[in-house]
Amino acid sequence: MTTSSNLLWLIALPLFSSAILILSGKRANSWGHVLATIVSASSFTIGVVEFFAMHGRSDANRAVTQKIFTWISVGSLNVDASLMLDQLSICFVLLITGVGTLIHVYSISYMSHDHDRRRFFAYLNFFIASMLLLVLGDSYLNLYVGWEGVGLASYLLIGFWNQKPAYATAAKKAFIANRIGDVGLSIAIMIAFATFGDVSFAGIKEHADEASSTQLTAIGLMLLLAACGKSAQFPLQSWLGDAMAGPTPVSALIHAATMVTAGVYLITRSNFIFDEAPIAQLMVLVVGGITLLFGAVIGMAKDDIKKALAASTMSQIGYMILATGLGPIGYAFAIMHLLTHGFFKASMFLGAGSVMHGMKDEVNMRKFGGIGKFMPFTALTFGLGYLAIIGVPPFSGFYSKDKIIETAFNAGGIKGIALGMATLLGAVITAFYMTRVVILTFFGNERWGHKDEPAESPALMLIPIGLLSIGSIAAGFIFSKGDGLVNWLQPVVNPLKEHHAEEFLPPIIVSLMTLVAVMIGLTVAILKYRGDQVAQAPEKVSVLVSAARRDLFQDEFNEAAFMRPGQSLIKILLNLDYILIDGLVRSVAATSLSAGVRLRTLQTGYVRSYALMMVIGALALVTTIWVVTA
Amino acid sequence: MAIANYLYLSAILFTIGAVGVVVRRNAIVVFMCIELMLNAANLAFVTFARVNSNLDGQVVAFFTMVVAACEVVVGLAIIVTIYRSRRSVSVDDASLLKQ
Questions:
Q1: Are the Cβ atoms of A615 and B22 closer than 8 angstroms?
Q2: Structural domain tally of chain A?
Q3: Quick check: is A423 in a domain?
Q4: Chain B nearest-CA residue for A601
Q5: Shortest CA gap B93–chain A (Å)
Q6: Residue A159 phi/psi, 5° resolution?
Q7: How many domains are there within chain B?
Q8: ipTM for the complex shown
Q9: Chain B 23-42, CB below 8 Å of chain A: which residues?
Q10: Residue A345, domain extent
Q11: How far apart are CA A7 and CA A64, in angstroms?
């Protein structure tokens, strides 16, 4: 395998910059954002250079590694802190640094009124560094470091405005939900070490077929738990909606384009485990299927534009997770959807941020309306992202989502039909709720209730949106041209190993069905939301709508099923500790205390009583000796 | 005279000494009772030396006298000091260590 010394710089640059921004304090206020953006752009440049270098090599030699230092060397456990850049990670590197840089540029303007902008950029850089470490680590342990790092960055950035208690709570909620997933990942690493005596991807891949299916299933399920936490999949999805408390660029970068897709990366990276563990793979499908419908249903009812987009993110990642569950052929499509989603969802989030900028931080879509003519560029780019996400050809979402639906239908048997119908239903609902978002925001009557007209955002915000829009138009076509991305990823995810089942439905039929599904959703939304709307959300709504507004009761469920029993358990344990453990210690103390009090009375201080005791003692001794010897 | 009579005398003297230490309050008397016990022991040593027809017991008796002499020096010094500070030689008055 080729070695390269550039990989460390990818991570080190943003990490150093983050440290500098944190440590130099207010002195960096004037130049901090510039440094952060330049550093992010440099990482992107290194990524591009590495990509072209990789592209120039033959398939077998594309992966490069760099050993930084020997991290752990204890007995049979040898872990190097080393990085590996292969065909899969380069996709992520380019996405993270590329979209990351654009969002840095956007944030310069978006956060310009915030006196803590320097800290914001420090966190953003820290996020970039952690996320790069996550995708570049060559073992599960290295990945875990990055995994925790992005969790921390996410926590810090969701709670960036932590002076509002609700935002601080949202950050904690995200962190705790992520912790549950992290526990899954650490258990998976432990099982992997117990099974293979190794935690590196290459080592485990080599020996994956030697392990028993129980062990592989256990590792797979734990990895799935980890993915559920980080990628906001059912049943750990409830944090993502609240995570929208963070500044909008954060929502775009971390909670739409990159960090939340780490679960998809983890499963794709662990393809050698999931391919050998059918039960775990089936669970991946179930989780993906449930979440894609779950998110879509929630998305239909949300009035907060960011929360609607967050629900949509959840649903789209559901698509990706479902695709990774479809086996070798699905991984490449999952990554393709991940990349196109990174473009169009980031562009829509930034568009939403631009709208909020113009509307004085209003997020309620019921109070928007008719913004299109005041903010034409934002409306145009948002529209392009919209066409991409609902899957209208030739926009990027069409290519990636269509492939997933097609693969789902071809999974074979009842499973294939069920998955296919789920993805198709998801497409209908996606078209519905995204159309709803677009109509409520950019069309119809003006409902914002004040005279100030929203003004278009400054160029520094519009340029990144524009560039991302180009991605949402063209990415799908580029990736799928001549099966480019599939062939590119083939050495990593090995799709040719799959024995191709007979095609259930030909691609053209699936495409037509998808288009019909999209048209249905779109038409229903237009019929429902055309004409003038009122600024108030209707009070009397069906059970389903009120359930969707409350995230399908996931919070209530978590509270009833985990939080309350957890609290009672803690109370019981506390009492047990107080009565049993403390009681034991306290009774020992009380016994020795009372013994002391009693024994103290022997010490009268009178010499004569001591003498008497000596006499009695001596007599007793003599008597004993006499009795024993006699 | 039966040799056992020396031992009876020694036992009686020792008992008188021991009882005196326990019941008397005056430090000087207590002190004298201790001397009495030491000498009772000496008498027993000398008697046993006689019984065994060697000088071991007599040698130990000399050691005891030396120790007793040292003890008298230290003991009387303590008693005098206590008397100077407390104007009393009652051993019951010198019971402050219990606090």
A1: yes
A2: 2
A3: yes
A4: B98
A5: 8
A6: -90, 25
A7: 1
A8: 0.86
A9: 23, 25, 30
A10: 277-542
A11: 9
